[in-house]
Amino acid sequence: MQYLLLIYDDEKKWAALPAAEVGTLIADYNKFTADIKASGHLLVANRLQSVTNATTVRVREGKTQLTDGPFAETREQLGGYYLIEAKNLDEATAIAARIPSAKLGSIEVRPLHGM
Amino acid sequence: MQSAAAIADVFRAERSRVLATTIRVCNGDFELAEEAVQDAFTAALSRWPAEGIPDEPRGWLVQVARHKAIDQVRRRVKLRELVAAEAAEPADGAQDPAARVVTDDRLRLMFTCCHPALAAEAQVALTLRTLGGLTTEEIARAFLTSPVTMAQRLVRAKTKIRDARIPYKVPEPSELAPRTDAVTSVIYLIFNEGYAATAGDEWLRKDLCREAIRLGRLLVELVGASDIGAEPRGLLALMLLHDARRDTRTDDHGDLVLLEDQDRSRWDHAQIAEALELVPGALRGGGGPYALEAAVAALHCSAARAADTDWAQIAALYSERLRRRPSSIVELNRAVAVAMAEGPAAGLALVEPLRDELAEYHLWHATRADLLRRLGRTKEAATAYRAALARVGSDPERRFLERRLRALS
Fold it and tell me: How many Å apart are CA B12 and CA B15, to the nearest integer?
């Protein structure tokens, strides 16, 4: 079963971190990604650019409207994702708990439709 | 010929076990399993009256439910998963269907129903529905919500279990502690629903209590030896102590008999002895809320006469609980104990400040009424009894309050 692990972080918190801590976090991410790749859980993963580069698109009455920024202003922003294969929700949440950002922000675990 | 009543008894006794096993057979698909069990009961109703109840009714029902589920899945063209599960079952199990019913299926069901990925109220509702066999209406009444809301909550929970694939299993040792807490509180809620009935159906209520005690025993068996086992032990002791007194709580007319007026010779003293042995182990390591509550019940049950009750010790145990977690209901209990130990005025002084939080709770009004009555403030007592009557849910409690109100004038 596939689960999408959505990483929600406070970008400001990241920006405020000292360089050394950011370095450690990135190293932790690299190790975590390598680990779940080796264990066969990883399908795809990516880090997103800042929400300052986000654009929201809506089509209303046939007209496309663009707005600067994310759909909703919240304290935590979607910062990246892992698409994984796990045998059940327990395994998926256990993997989510190992994502370095779980200690800073939160991880939303979403099962995918389909087989 | 088998009577419908005898068949109904079998259904009542076996329903949750058959369902628990069928859910496993259905790979954790609650909806599918519930339909299949319903179909199996229907099949039994059409065959047992003529053929008689089989020697192993549970095995029979599980087997039929399993076939109904497979049929259903075939129809849904979702064959693969179930066929794989069928192939994994040992073939020799077919000769003895009862042997296939794994004893801890209901524990597995309990842990799945109490999975932290489900909302707390959904955990309780699902356990009551699947393990307790309560109707959606009964659960709705117990949780003061509408049947429609409750039905939606149940459907949503079952859908999440299936679609997000919440596993149907007892958790790993590393996860056992937090998961056990969740199960413990759900078992207590089931017991309470049976014990402090909000309405009707005495046998169903008794069944719920027995079911809760059975589940409690099962949980103690699984985790009892570890540190995690302290609260389950406390809960089990508490339930055994309450249940030991259940037959003396009401008289022949179904009217409420207060603890101080109960015939203590009719308490189940074997069950009390069993519970008293559990209490020290439950209190080890400081004692959680269930252990402390069990200690209170143990003091009541150990008093040969009501007048021998150690109320000061009971008040101290309530204070200990409040120190850990504030709760206005526990404060109310403590006020009652203080009133017994130090007199009604001391009790009333503790009851009054709880007005805002407990204004809609009938027992707050009833407690206040009783203390006012003992202080000779009859007029205020009558007003308080009326306020309690306006909020009471069960008939025996209503009649009790009415008697008290009448006795004032």
Answer: 6
Contact A111 B165 (CB under 8 A): yes
Residue B267, pLDDT above cutoff 70: yes
CB atoms within 10 A of CB A73: 8
Between the alpha carbon of residue A53 and those of residues A47, B26, B192, the distances in Å are: 13, 47, 55
- State the nearest Cα–Cα gap between B110 and chain A, in angstroms: 16
Q: DSSP for B176-237?
A: HHHHHHHHHHHHHHHHHHHHS-SSS-HHHHHHHHHHHHHHHHHHHHHHTTSGGGHHHHHHHH
Is the dihedral angle over the CA atoms B363, B367, B372, B373 positive or is it negative?
Answer: positive
State how far the Cα of B375 lies from the Cα of B367, in Å rounded to an integer: 12
Task: Dig out the tokens for B282 from the structure.
Answer: 């439950």
From chain A, the residues in CB contact with B164 under 8 A are: 89, 109, 111
Neighbours of A91 (CB within 10 A): 17
**Is B171 in Cβ contact with A90 (below 8 Å)?**
yes
Query: Chain B residue closest to A108 (CA)?
Result: B117
Alpha-carbon gap, residue B246 to B272, rounded angstroms: 12
Q: Is residue B97 very low, low, confident or very high in pLDDT (cuts 50, 70, 90)?
A: very low
| Closest chain A residue to B28, measured at CA | A88
Q: Which residues of B touch A (CB under 8 A)?
A: 115, 117, 163-167, 171, 175
Asked if A111's CB is within 8 angstroms of B167's CB, the reply is no
pLDDT in tens, B202-220: 655 777 788 789 889 888 8
The answer to whether A98 faces chain B, any CB pair under 8 Å, is: no
The string of pLDDT tens digits covering residues A80-91 is 999 999 999 999
Cite the DSSP H helix spans in B26-56: 30-51
> Is A61 an interface residue toward B (CB < 8 Å)?
no
pLDDT of residue B93: 38
Burial B216-253 (b: 16+ CB within 10 A, else e): bebbbebbbeeebbbbbbbbbbbbbbbbbbeebeeeee
What's the confidence (pLDDT) of residue B101? 41
Tell whether pTM > 0.90: no
Residues of B in contact with A89 (CB under 8 A): 115, 117, 164-167
- Establish if A90 touches chain B: CB-CB under 8 angstroms: yes
| Cβ within 8 Å of residue B292, ≥6 positions away | B234, B283, B317, B318, B320, B321
CA distance A27 to B121: 40
